[in-house]
Design brief:
Elements (H helix, E strand, L loop, with lengths): L3 E3 L21 E6 L22 E2 L11 E3 L4 E6 L5 E8 L9 E3 L1 E4 L3 E5 L12 E5 L8 E5 L5 E5 L3 E2 L10 E6 L4 E3 L38 E3 L7 E3 L7 E4 L4 E4 L11 E4 L7 E4 L2 E2 L3 E2 L5 E4 L8 E11 L5 E7 L2 E2 L4 E8 L3 E5 L4 E2 L12 E11 L2 E10 L5 E9 L6 E6 L6 E10 L1
Parallel strand pairs: 7-10, 9-11, 12-15
Antiparallel strand pairs: 1-4, 2-3, 2-5, 5-6, 8-9, 10-14, 11-12, 12-13, 14-15, 16-17, 18-19, 20-21, 22-35, 23-35, 24-34, 25-31, 25-35, 26-27, 26-30, 26-34, 28-29, 28-33, 31-32, 32-33
């Protein structure tokens, strides 16, 4: 049975005006099917037995002479002119008042899988933008699909805007909701039945969301476990294990394992890498064995590691049997180098003197240098880069009030491995004191 509802636009006693606010006397009001130029009849009462003229001619007050009722479920377009047929305005997709079918209608006689057909009540003559329809799907779609209502041209069913729906977005026996956007029917409720979602809040899921779709693939998360990615498969969990364990990689995966502990073997040791790949318990500052400088012409400290960056040579009460100057020479695995030292030593008491380096790093200058000279102090050697070393130090004498300052540099042909304490010329004999070396 066809029913009629009062027009939301013209209704009862509607009055119209021109752009100057003057009642639109003799104005012409046309009614069409929404979105078309097809004239649509309206009626003077809810019985739908007496038709209004089309156009309706407005009276002396600019009002419709009769009420305007339109068929339920049909959206109209109204076009308003003045008495000279000059356009005042166009008003499209106008529903009637309290019309449950004008915007929202459940379709019947639904059939088809990807080419879905259905009928509406009352029968549609055109699709109206904004109209919403529901239907119980006859079949589950297997791909992109279309919907035709009342034999009208089939329009695509889309989701998330203009994207074609995927297999399973329309599910047999379930209520589907679509809204016509002027071109296609947008599927409003596809996410409820397992469709995709671009944004929003998920309240609950019947099955865990897979990792491939941004979930974990797991229905529960074990308390205090660490979650590991596992490609598109469900995530993996690593339990804490024993107290003190750490998450450790073997280069492929992670596991809860007891971390390796580098145990010290002597006081002062720290974890230290000498090869760039592993750590060992090593003394960061290593003191070599002190040597009594009471005989011989050379005191050598060998087997210095290649990673060393600073060396401190220390002297306490050192003297020689001649007036020869003391010097430090640096060596590699090929031997000690005796040339191309640069720098100088300066100092003295009443008479100050300076001497340049040549064959080694001088501890003192020639001032106050004799067989009775007793030397105390330290010389620090620092690796500036590559195989180049700089020297600085202070030596004070105890047999007389004299202090010496020294500074210079030496570039070696290879990595430093040894240090020698000797005299210039290499023939002076030590006769007292102690010498030692620290490296770090």
């Amino acid at each position: 049975m066809t029913t009629y509802n009062l027009s939301a636009f013209a209704g009862a006693g509607a009055q119209f005006f021109d752009d100057d606010g003057v009642p639109l006397v003799g104005g012409l009001l046309y009614s069409y099917d929404a979105g078309t130029t097809t004239l649509r009849t309206t009626y003077t009462t809810s019985a739908g037995t007496i038709a209004n003229t089309n156009p309706i001619v407005l009276n002396a007050g600019g009002r419709t002479p009769n009420e305007v009722w339109q068929t339920s479920g049909v959206l109209l377009k109204f076009v308003l002119y003045n008495s000279l047929s000059e356009l005042i305005g166009t008003y499209d997709n106008i529903p009637s008042i309290n019309d449950p079918f004008g915007i929202n209608s459940q379709l019947s006689s639904v059939a088809g899988t990807n080419s879905i057909t259905a009928t509406a009540s009352p029968t549609l003559t055109a699709y109206a933008t904004g109209s919403i329809y529901s239907f119980i799907a006859a079949n589950t779609n297997t791909g992109a699909a279309t919907l035709s209502i009342d034999g009208l041209t089939a329009a695509s069913i889309t989701k998330n805007g203009s994207a074609a729906i995927s297999a399973g977005d329309v599910q047999a026996g379930k209520m589907m909701l679509v809204e016509y956007d002027g071109t296609a029917f947008q599927l409003v409720n596809n996410i409820i039945y397992g469709g995709s979602i671009t944004s929003g809040t998920i309240v609950s899921l019947t099955t865990p969301m897979s990792a491939a779709n941004g979930g974990t693939g797991a229905s529960t998360l074990t308390a205090n476990n660490v979650i590991l990615g596992n490609g598109v498969a469900a995530v993996q969990f690593v339990a804490p294990g024993t107290s003190g364990n750490a998450l450790i990689s073997d280069g492929t995966t992670w596991a809860s394992s007891t971390p390796a502990v580098i145990a010290p073997t002597a006081i002062g040791q720290v974890p230290f890498s000498t090869n760039g790949t592993s750590y060992t318990a090593t003394q960061k500052i290593v003191q070599m064995t002190a040597v009594a400088s009471t005989s011989g012409t050379n005191i050598d400290f060998t087997s210095i590691p290649s990673w060393v960056k600073r060396i401190t040579a220390m002297f306490d009460g050192v003297s020689t049997a001649s007036s020869a100057l003391l010097q430090i020479q640096l060596g590699t695995s090929s031997g000690f180098e005796t040339t191309n030292y640069f720098g100088s030593a300066t100092g003295g008491g009443a008479a100050v003197s300076s001497n340049n380096y040549s064959s080694g790093i001088l501890l003192t200058s020639s001032a106050s240098s004799s067989s009775t000279t007793v030397r105390h102090g330290a010389i620090i050697l620092t690796n500036i880069s590559g195989n180049t070393w700089t020297a600085q130090g202070v030596i004070g004498l105890s047999d007389t009030a004299v202090t010496f300052y020294t500074g210079g540099a030496k570039s070696l042909a290879a990595t430093l491995t040894q240090v020698r304490i000797t005299t210039v010329g290499g023939t002076g004999t030590f006769d007292a004191g102690t010498v030692n070396v620290l490296y770090e």
